[in-house]
Design a protein that fits this description.
The structure holds 3 protein chains of 3 kinds. Chain B is α+β, with helices and mostly antiparallel strands. Chain B is built from 4 helices and 10 strands. In chain B, the strands form 2 sheets. In chain B, strands 3, 5, 6, 8, 9 and 10 form a 6-stranded mixed beta sheet that branches. In chain B, strands 2-1-4-7 form a 4-stranded mixed beta sheet, with no helix packed on it. In chain C, α12 packs across α18. Classes of the chains: A mainly alpha, B alpha+beta, C mainly alpha. Bound molecules: protoporphyrin IX containing FE and copper (II) ion (2 copies).
């Protein structure tokens, strides 16, 4: 056990980025599966029940929007302005929470009907997207909590950067799902 | 040099013995019992691959055994091997060349050639005289239907499904999976597998699809002669899967007509 | 995920006061139980009340299970080790140094490796017991061990699932990989120790889930969980999906950790040209895992939704074959995930045992890499019986072609053994047996790749024999070779050569007699997934069962022998095999740190043409001797 948290060496930073990249890449695979299964099962059909706005466009916009404060926070973390970093992170947290709600809403308000499964691919997509958003938010919150305890700053830069990557991954993969599911 | 000669002799002897064994097996029957041309084709493909593989397998097995015995360390002491080399261009090149050639060979024959034969056999122009048997798989029972003779469900005296086929005829099996007795959802079905071991082929039956399997029977036989002459489900389809079998009888054309007549009578009553 | 991100924060300031605490495993169990009850009740009684409100519904059990697994992980130490520090709280956690450290969350790659190994052995014994029950049933053509076919089929499913996902995929990778890879690349740590610590505890959870599935109801689909049959099955299939989910998640984390360790934790001088063969094996397997495990997870998630909500994806909509297609897309790479580590092991152990330089090393590596690449292109050969004719030729082609890179492993070994001074130790013997067995598996694979032959033997016991040859024959035999080879590393003690050899010959004979006859059974018309079969097959089945049971006993005796020698074996020198690889340059067993000074690698590990070591410093000159 050591009291001082040492800053990462460049090699360790590269290692962490690489590990995260691996994780993110491997998590792209389910998206591909989802999209493929969609074409195999439902072809071009878009369910009348699928909510274009709530389960689709709104989260996409909100998540993309949220990427801005997250990456600004990363920049602030790099130069050590902790306060501004925290403000940006909190902002992103709020945007993300709203996004999460918009993704979960259609799940709750869906009429589950075993006999007409058309459109369920959309619902599953929303669920998967919601799950990833939830994970992203937990990660974000953990960084905020650490920052609140003074464990933030240039030497903790990686945690913030990781949040940035994960956020962007989540936003982009949702965008991809959204476009494929609703527009193609 | 001595080692190479020693190994080569062992390899050649083993390969020769192996070939003898394989040809003995081929003279018997690899598939135990066959009752269709397709099974004979499959069997000869099987045998051909075995013949070609014997020297390959012998090479590796003899190598492993020869190395193990000839180059074992004697004594307790751990000593570095005297011979040290990192590669051998000739050996590596020959190895790769042979493995590529053997693979291409297998691909051309029997894979592609035998498949072509099979596909050709399925071409309609060869099959105008086919006997059509509609095979329906339900959970868990085989139903056989002979549309050319208006037999909706072939059954023996006890009401169990039974299949009769004429010998030396091409049979076109039309395979479907659904449940005609299901009260509200006949399409709620699962995948089954249609296999008559003595015919040497099988085909999965997919709900919602119609698939075909062609067989040319080549001898008079039946389930009572050899239990491999039976229909057996080969894709797990629920707890009843093991019980999805039905006896097959391959009979002469005259006997087949007699059976048809009796089935038609049975149906009317 | 958060564990990756926060990994390198290290431990937060330690606090001196400590509350008394239950043993972590016990605490984990209790927390899991509580979490299950709370969330199950919440679902079934409040949120999602069903007609006649049963206490356990499919939805409630799923939610309860997720909560229970999280609680289990937290309880074994993730709470103190990962969650609190991630949120900036101080850690109240002290790691014991005695045996207790194996029964809690740990960040030490050697502890984790052994935990994985124990979990795998547990899975092997449980699933092996299931196999014994199945073989016992098959001694007779009627139902006699099981009262109904569904019970038998559930057992087949449990056997296959636990074997594949907790032994095949895990034994050599999560177990030996976690223990050895940091040692082999000259590092004191793995890349992401916290993530690794979490992932191990998913394995017992996953095994328990699959094994408990009959509590919810029978499932008859076998390890493929195939739709549309699965959607008809009673609720047991839910625990199949969930258990596999836990197990695959664990392997996925291992893959990320090992890849990053090999790429970023290498000691100075350990260039790409010098990466050990076992590490190459782990690298290729990890890449396969990274691609294919998420694929199957998504598929199973859709299956699970189908069983729970229900979302009947694979039944009324589209083609019932969709599921099988996406399953085998994963399924075939999976079998290479199982066997590639074995290839790597052969090339790792034999140069040492022969004290001879590795032959044609680059071809060995090319072989591993190309097997990895091709394995994604052959999947449909599992579906010759239900694909269209035009698809048969290409898949047949790739399937046959994959034997070329596979053959390179043999090329390397044969060249290495030629004119070696081969010590016929137990690991040597097991590796050679493993190569023989895989040869049989491979030859029958060539037969299976031929569509005309395949249409006869597919879904029969011929296939069962074939894949057991590749899995037991190659992977399990190599697994035992690894146990014997690295036992002195784990414990500083040696096994008994006599017993090791006798037992190895035992399992070799029992295995071959049992499984060779299965080929014949298949040709003779014995189909798969049947507890009841025509009487003419009974005599041969009886013999198969007899030798299968002998095989099972042989495996157990091996474990007993290893366990006994673990504690009581004679002490040996640090490097009893005179290996040049790095793991043997540390003490046996390694001290608190693998290497007190990180070694510098100056030449390759597989050159036995002289006595010069591959590292430039005496790496453990001042390490505490015999630290446990
Ligand atoms: C003691 C040794 C073993 C025996 C006697 C044994 C026996 C069997 C039997 C009788 C079956 C049922 C075949 C069928 O009817 O379809 C089976 C299936 C299977 N076994 Fe084993 N097995 C053993 C070890 C292993 C090991 C070590 C693995 C993998 C690591 C394994 C993986 C499988 C798989 C994947 C299946 C297919 C299950 C399914 O159809 O869903 N087995 N085994
Ligand atoms: Cu069936
Ligand atoms: Cu069946």
């Amino acid at each position: 056990m050591h009291d001082v948290i040492e800053p990462l060496t460049p090699r360790e930073l590269r290692k962490n980025r690489f590990g995260l990249l691996l994780f993110v890449t491997s998590q792209l695979v389910p998206t591909f599966v989802l999209i493929n299964v969609r074409f195999m099962l439902a072809d071009e059909y878009v369910s009348a029940q699928a909510d274009l706005l709530l389960g689709g466009l709104l989260p996409a916009l909100l998540l993309l929007l949220g990427a801005i404060p997250v990456w600004r926070a990363v920049r602030f973390a790099a130069v050590g302005s902790t306060d501004r970093m925290r403000r940006q992170l909190t902002l992103a947290g709020i945007v993300g929470l709203v996004g999460l709600v918009t993704q979960i809403w259609p799940l709750i308000h869906h009429r589950y009907d075993a006999l007409t499964p058309f459109g369920e691919v959309h619902l599953a997509s929303v669920g998967v997207g919601g799950f990833f958003t939830l994970v992203t938010l937990i990660l974000l919150y953990s960084v905020i909590a650490r920052a609140a305890r003074g464990q933030a700053g240039p030497e903790h830069y990686w945690g913030v950067e990781a949040t940035g990557f994960v956020w962007s991954f989540n936003a982009l993969s949702w965008l991809a799902i959204y476009i494929v599911m609703f527009w193609l | 040099m001595g080692d190479i000669v020693g190994f080569a002799v062992a390899w050649i002897v083993t390969s020769a013995l192996g070939e003898l064994a394989v040809s003995a097996v081929r003279r018997g029957s690899i598939y135990y019992y066959t009752a269709s041309n397709q099974a004979l084709d499959g069997e000869s493909a099987f045998g051909f691959i075995l013949v070609m593989l014997v020297p390959v397998v012998a090479f590796i097995v003899v190598m492993l055994v020869y190395n193990m015995i000839r180059f074992r360390a004697r004594g307790k002491e751990i000593l570095r091997s005297q011979a040290q080399f990192y590669t051998n261009k000739v050996f590596v090149t020959v190895w790769i060349a042979i493995s590529v050639v053997v693979n291409l060979l297998f691909y051309l024959h029997p894979t592609a050639s035998a498949l072509e034969q099979m596909f050709n056999g399925e071409e309609a122009r060869y099959n105008r005289q086919d006997l059509i048997v509609n095979v329906t798989a339900r959970q868990w029972q085989w139903l056989f239907n002979y549309p050319q003779y208006n037999i909706t469900q072939a059954a023996d005296a006890n009401g169990n499904s039974v299949m009769f086929l004429p010998a030396d005829r091409t049979i076109k099996f039309v395979l479907r999976s659904y449940d005609p007795f299901h009260t509200y959802d006949a399409s709620a079905g699962v995948i089954h597998g249609f296999w008559v071991p003595a015919f040497g082929l099988k085909q999965d039956i997919i709900p919602g699809e119609t698939r075909y399997l062609y067989i040319h029977t080549n001898k008079i036989t039946s389930y009572d002669v050899n239990p491999m002459v039976r229909v057996q489900c080969t894709e797990v389809c629920g707890p009843g899967h093991p019980f999805m079998e039905a006896p097959v009888h391959v009979v002469s054309a005259a006997d087949f007509q007699k059976w048809i007549a009796s089935q038609q009578k049975q149906q009317q009553s | 995920m958060s564990s990756i991100a926060t990994d390198l924060l290290g431990d937060s300031p330690s606090q001196t006061h400590r509350r008394p605490m239950l043993p972590p495993v016990v605490r984990g169990l209790i927390w899991a139980l509580i979490a299950f009850l709370v969330f199950n009740t919440l679902m079934s009684e409040v949120l999602d009340r069903m007609p006649y409100h049963p206490f356990v519904t499919r939805a409630s059990v799923t939610v309860g299970w997720v909560a229970a697994v999280c609680a289990w992980l937290l309880g074994v130490g993730v709470w103190e080790g990962v969650v609190r520090p991630s949120f900036g709280f101080p850690t109240l956690w002290e790691t014991p140094t005695d045996w207790r450290k194996y029964f809690m969350y740990s960040t030490d790659h050697r502890v984790i490796g052994l935990q994985y190994i124990f979990s795998s052995i547990g899975g092997f014994l449980i699933a092996g017991f299931a196999a014994m029950l199945m073989r016992l049933e098959l001694m007779n053509q009627n139902l006699w061990v099981f009262s109904n076919p569904g019970a038998y089929l559930s057992t087949v499913g449990i056997h296959g699932t636990v074997m594949m996902f907790s032994v095949g995929t895990v034994g050599l990778v999560g177990g030996f990989g976690n223990y050895l890879i940091p040692l082999m690349v000259g590092s004191n740590k793995s890349a992401f120790p916290r993530m690794s610590g979490v992932s191990q505890w998913l394995v017992p959870a996953g095994i328990a889930t699959v094994v408990l599935s009959p509590v919810l109801g029978q499932w008859t689909t076998g390890w493929r969980g195939y739709e549309p049959l699965a959607s008809q099955d009673p609720a047991g299939i839910v625990f199949y999906y969930l258990g596999v989910f836990a197990l695959t998640t664990s392997s996925l984390m291992v893959a990320i950790n090992l890849t990053a360790t090999i790429l970023f934790k290498r000691a100075p001088g350990l260039t790409w040209n010098r990466i050990p063969m076992f590490a190459w094996g782990m690298l290729t397997v990890s890449l396969l895992n990274l691609i294919w495990l998420p694929e199957i997870q998504m598929t199973f998630l859709l299956g699970l939704l189908g069983a729970v909500i229900p979302f009947p994806y694979f039944t009324q909509v589209g083609s019932p074959l969709t599921y099988l297609e996406v399953f085998w897309l994963f399924g075939h790479p999976e079998v290479y995930i199982v066997v590639v580590p074995a290839f790597a092991l052969w090339q790792e152990i034999l140069p040492v045992m022969g004290q001879k330089s590795l032959f044609a090393r680059q071809w060995g590596i090319i072989g591993l890499v190309f097997v990895m690449i091709l394995s994604g292109m052959v999947w449909a050969h599992h579906m010759f019986t239900n694909m269209s004719n035009s698809q048969m030729l290409p898949f047949s082609f790739f399937t046959e072609i994959i034997s070329i890179p596979t053959g390179f492993a043999y090329l390397v070994v044969i060249g290495t053994l030629w004119k070696a001074r081969l010590r016929l130790t137990t690991p040597t013997l097991l590796v050679l047996m493993s190569m023989f067995n895989f040869l049989i598996g491979g030859v029958t694979g060539v037969l299976l790749a031929d569509p005309v032959v395949n249409l006869q033997v597919h879904d029969s016991f011929f296939v069962v024999a074939h894949f057991h040859y590749t899995i037991i024959g190659a992977m399990i035999f190599s697994w035992f070779a690894a146990f014997y080879y690295w036992l002195p590393k784990f414990t500083g003690r040696m096994y008994s050569e006599r017993w090791g050899k006798v037992l190895s010959v035992w399992i070799f004979i029992a295995f071959n007699v049992a499984f060779l006859q299965m080929f014949l059974l298949g040709l003779h018309g014995m189909n798969r997934w049947v507890p009841v079969y025509p009487a003419y097959l009974q005599p041969m089945n009886f013999q198969v069962s007899l030798f299968a049971i002998l095989l099972g006993i042989g495996f157990v005796l091996h474990f007993l022998h290893i366990a006994w020698m673990w504690r009581h074996g004679p002490r040996v020198e640090e490097n009893p095999w005179r290996s040049k690889t790095l793991e043997w340059q540390a003490t046996s067993p390694p001290g608190d740190e693998n290497f007190t000074t990180i070694p510098t690698v100056v030449r390759g590990f597989y050159d036995y043409s002289d006595d010069r070591p591959a590292v430039s410093v005496d790496v453990h000159a001042d390490a505490p001797q015999g630290a446990r």
